[in-house]
Specification:
single chain; Rossmann fold; N-(1-d-carboxylethyl)-l-norvaline Dehydrogenase, domain 2; eight-stranded mixed sheet
Length: about 325
């Protein structure tokens, strides 16, 4: 396949490196300093999936350089709040037959992208392996909780296309499967991230500490309960029938496996970057207002996290 990776941060580096080593033609696009480093030394991956390095076929620094390039798949790894603006910039350069994989956190990426790209070319991904940037064009895979799940909201893309793409990723070393109910899995990750990520950033403790403390545990219980109430109004199923069933799995299985993990939002704040709070708890609050469902704990969490963002910058 001919693949374009837009964003060579932690996630984009993993995809570009492993797919290139599997024999695909891979190009990467990022800001000047990242592109220069990748052009000079290639991309490198370390961690639980082993040591890998590769030279990409080309590196770009401006979406206009995509003009005339023929590619089958574009993997978008930018922050969720950048999805709409990036799609607007690249829409006229994307090959009409190419698919775009939205490999991002949170809710609203598909809707933002669909304003500029036909929905039948958009693939949504639930990425649940952890990777951290260790240098320009260098990434370390630290944890994996489940396969990557890909799908088409509304099932606008043939299942066989997505099955074939899952095999491409799995063969490259990124375990992936297709689901016709991808939004179930996307929301499963949103619930998990909304309960842990902002509190971990605000209090600057690993996830295990949040579950051990009765005060933060109560806050997380309320965040989860509010999300399930909003999802019921939204008509969105999850792999769990209700908040109680989710909480049992959350404290019994999910948190213990990531107990030492620190919030990505904390890393963003420490680096002076904007967080993705609006695509997580913020999205819950917005959907709640749409359906007349109050989500006061999520709303307070959003306000505190935003205040911390502003005070750190």
């Amino acid at each position: 396949m001919k693949i374009m990776v837009f964003g060579l941060g932690a996630l984009g580096t993993v995809y570009s490196c492993l797919l290139k080593n599997q024999g695909h033609e891979v190009s990467g696009l990022d800001r000047d300093v990242v592109a220069a480093a990748v052009q000079s030394q290639g991309v490198k991956v370390s961690g639980i999936w082993g040591e890998h390095e590769a030279r990409l076929d080309r590196t770009l620094t401006d979406p206009e350089e995509m003009a005339g390039l023929d590619f089958d798949l574009l993997i978008l790894t930018v922050k969720s709040y950048e999805t709409g603006s990036v799609m607007e910039r690249i829409a006229r350069f994307v090959c009409p037959r190419a698919y775009i994989l939205l490999a991002q956190n949170g809710y609203g990426n598909f809707e933002a992208a669909a304003r500029w790209i036909p929905a039948e070319r958009l693939i949504l991904g639930r990425i649940i392996f952890g990777a951290e940037t260790t240098g320009l064009g260098e990434s370390k895979v630290t944890v994996i909780a489940d396969d990557v799940v890909i799908g088409s909201p509304g099932n606008l893309i043939a299942g066989q296309v997505l099955e074939d793409l899952s095999l491409v990723f799995t063969s490259a070393g990124i375990p992936t499967r297709f689901s016709p109910e991808v939004m179930k899995f996307v929301w499963a990750k949103i619930i998990y991230n909304s309960a842990l990520n902002p509190l971990g950033a605000i209090l600057e403790v690993p996830y295990g500490k949040l579950a051990e403390n009765p005060n933060t545990r109560t806050l997380m219980d309320n965040i989860i309960t509010e999300i399930f109430a909003v999802l019921k109004a939204h008509g969105q199923d999850t792999p769990w029938p209700d908040a109680k069933a989710y909480q049992e799995a959350f404290y019994g299985q999910m948190v213990p496996s990531t107990a030492l993990h620190h919030a990505s939002m904390l890393q963003d704040i420490q680096r002076g970057r904007k967080t993705e709070i609006e695509a997580l708890n913020g999205a819950v609050v917005s959907l709640g207002k749409k359906y007349g469902i109050a989500a006061p704990v999520n709303e307070v969490i959003v306000s505190i996290l935003k205040a911390k963002e502003e005070m750190q910058n």
